[in-house]
Amino acid sequence: MTVNLPSPCRDRNRTNRRMFSSNRMAIWMVVCFAVLAATFGSTISTAEATEFYVSPSGKETASGSKQDPFASLQLARDAVRRVSGASPITVFVRGGSYFLPNGIKFEKQDGGTAEFPTIWKAYADEVPILVGGLPIDGFVPHKGKILKADLKSQGFRDANFKQLVFNGQRQILARYPNYDPDNPYAGGWAYADGEYIPMYKDVPGENRRSLVYKPKDARVWSRPQDVEVFVFPRYNWWNNICRIDSVDRDSRMITLATDASYPIRPSDRYYFQGAIEDLDSAGEWYLDKETQTLFFWPPGSIRNESVFAPTTRTILNIGSGTSHLMFEGFTIECAEGDAVTLNQTNDCRIARCTIRNVGDYRGSGVTVRGGVRNGVIGCDIHNIGRSAISLSGGDVPTLTPAGNYADNNYIHHTGVYYKQGVGVSMTGVGHRATHNLIHDCPRFGIGFHGNNLAIEYNHIRHVNLETADTGAVYTGGRDWLGSRGTVIRHNYFHDILGFGFENGKWESPHFGWGVYLDDNTGGVDVIGNIVARAKRGLIHLHSSRDNRIENNVFIDGDMQQIECSGWTATGKRWNEHFDEMVKGYNSVAGQPAWQSMRNMDVPPNDAVLPDGTVMSGNTFLRNIICYGKPQSNFVRVRDFSFDHNFFDYNLIWHDGLPINTGQAVYGRPLSDNLAPNPSFERGTIGQMPQLWRWQIHPHGDSVGAMEVVSNAKGMGQGNRVLRIDADFDQEKPRDNFPIIVSEPLELKLGKAYRLTAKMKSDHVGAKANLMLQSYVANAYFWANWPSDCDLTTDWTEQEVTFQIPQRGADKWHEKMTTFRVRIDFSDESGSLWVDDVRLVEIESLDPWTSWQAKGMDQHSLVADPMFVDRANDDYRLKPDSPAFDLGFERIPVEKIGPHSDTFRASWPIVEATGAREKPFRAHSDHPESSPDAQSSVDAK
């Protein structure tokens, strides 16, 4: 009796191979037997194993033996069906190309059992390549270096493919502007024409089907209706690919056939693709669908079967009910959709495979839809249209786990077409992503939304390369449920870039975090991770609640290390998603499984805190926070309750510099009133007060007024008050409302001040601001923010406290020598009255002491953590590190990332190189771009 086992644990290191000498083979067979048993969750029977063989040189009439192999996978599958369930089955597939123009479907009868699994695997060290399409040959000269081939005679029927593969590389659909291999992410773009509109400013009536191009980007196409626009609209969160409906050359307006996700605004980046007129560089191609002719400028010599195109959406389609089916050691490429789908399967695995060059805007590498305990193990997955691995399944109301997983994979260059494509996507309950290496993704490394998920021992670097407002890992909780119960533990995230538009130019790094818990995320544990180098911050809690941030190492965030931005009960976001949150909470409120979920006894209706904020239940304990840039902050908080969130036992080190928390606790006044003519007593009634003047008066004296009036019903110090009438100019985009300022004041840099004024309006809710400003035109501008005033029809005292930047600090400028008190009245109608303006210097605690005075970090230390070699990214701690005195526990860095294993596609992993090693810069052809704008791609 023989049992056909998986091939011996093929660590490709030859030294390891020599360990298994012939006199140890018996022991080795037992070990492999145990590995296979563990793989399929049960003890394997010692029943006679069944083996079949497939070879490109096989025959249609073969028996399927090693000496007489089948010619196709379909023949082997049908043979398996005839014996399935009687014994363990292994189908050995010899090296070579297997073209599957319609893919191949596996059903329930093609699987096995825990006792008798069915395994399809590469024979020995050979590489079988499964191609979801057909080869193309018969190329003849067309024009210059462009060749052409007739597809009708080569098995293609009504070809309409959007991908072409040559020598294992996906080629470029003819485009304008051309792809820039020296600057692959920021280069090769055109930019929509028009006057820039701030990203977060809403514009009524905007449509999502129009794009205005610049005169230099005008194109002449014989078939404009076949051309597509590849565009990042408005927010730069993801892209769209929309077909052109019409072109108005007079207005330079392109109308799209479908809506983009958002309106396409001036300066948004895009390119055109799919016109033969734009086929003008090596690697580009064009398909004439009417004549079924392929035009191609090959970047190298064409050999037999070196060019092929997809003819199916899925290559391996594993159907519902299939169990204990495994594919091992294949290269799988060229499909319009997913390379592999597992639909409601159980205990199936894709192992030790290379998956590449698959997927359009909606197509991923491996998609697991439902089922239980399905895994993607040890695969190399790259150049994928959407996501490398997508896992779903499980039941949210009962918290029944699916147990699907992605383990020990090497993933890079995802999101080729869909720029929210990630390394691993998880939705549902009870999945895990472990020991993966992920890099070069346009957005997140791992995106997740669900419950009781595990993200552990992953190494993620150089992601967020093409989008903004993003992180290495990301989730959201607008339904109140996500992603409660999830653990993010023992990962290494570093060099999280981000790419976006700022100050008139496209730049990187830009607006990215390491760990991003967005939009009310609840109940996530972030424990024992190393997070290094991100532009906006290393972790962001966006109105998140009930999260534990413990025992992490946060290193060298740029703007700040930790950011907590809350919602308020009166704010847009809370009210916008409130009904969704209530619905989510009510959907599980009575479920027994949810009763032990952290703080789920608080429904959305009871979540608003006494101060009007909603962010609560977050703890930051025993973390190491270490950073070096002088202007970087330790923490930034907004709409954050110090009574309901907690920091303590942390070790903070700013390389010996002060710890900036953005907090200031103010004390007694240190000066008299410094405001000039504070009660407007100096001046004539009906005229402007002395020592005050207009800064902006949109229509001049013809509309509105600023004048001293009688204080018969006032509450100020004298007999007069200042009245400002509305003068809002709808025609101007800015500087369109009254602004008055005092005469210049000489104040102390680095000192704290309190500015107050009594104000009222003739209607509730009028818009006004009270601030101190300093600026020199075309040099710098500084003012204290926020400065909004909450006005009623009664006199109320408005107050703002702030600190003027000290010399050398962020926002300080060498020309900052004088300051002015400023009052804005931005309402469209009515009047504003002002009296008793007071500006006094006040006592101020330093930011770290102020932070502690608010109850934060009472037992924390400011000290050097004593890393082994911080300069070379060795964040292990020396034995005498003060972090251990605070209870910090060692992070098992040696376990992070992929590892040698029977089911690893290659070992050691040789990381992809090429374009990412070159500077990633803003496009110098963009008129607003700076040629000096560089990214941190070459960071450690």
Automatic annotation (TrEMBL):
Residue spans of biased composition, Polar residues class: 931-940
UniProt xrefs under Pfam families: Beta_helix
Stretches the record annotates as Disordered: 914-940
Right handed beta helix domain boundaries: 339-505
InterPro entries in the cross-refs: Beta_helix (IPR039448), Galactose-bd-like_sf (IPR008979), PbH1 (IPR006626), Pectin_lyas_fold (IPR012334), Pectin_lyase_fold/virulence (IPR011050)
Positions with biased composition (Basic and acidic residues): 914-929
Gene3D superfamilies cross-referenced by the UniProt entry: Galactose-binding domain-like (2.60.120.260), Single-stranded right-handed beta-helix, Pectin lyase-like (2.160.20.10)
PANTHER family: RIGHT HANDED BETA HELIX DOMAIN-CONTAINING PROTEIN, SECRETED PROTEIN-RELATED
Protein name according to UniProt: Right handed beta helix domain-containing protein
Organism: Novipirellula herctigrandis
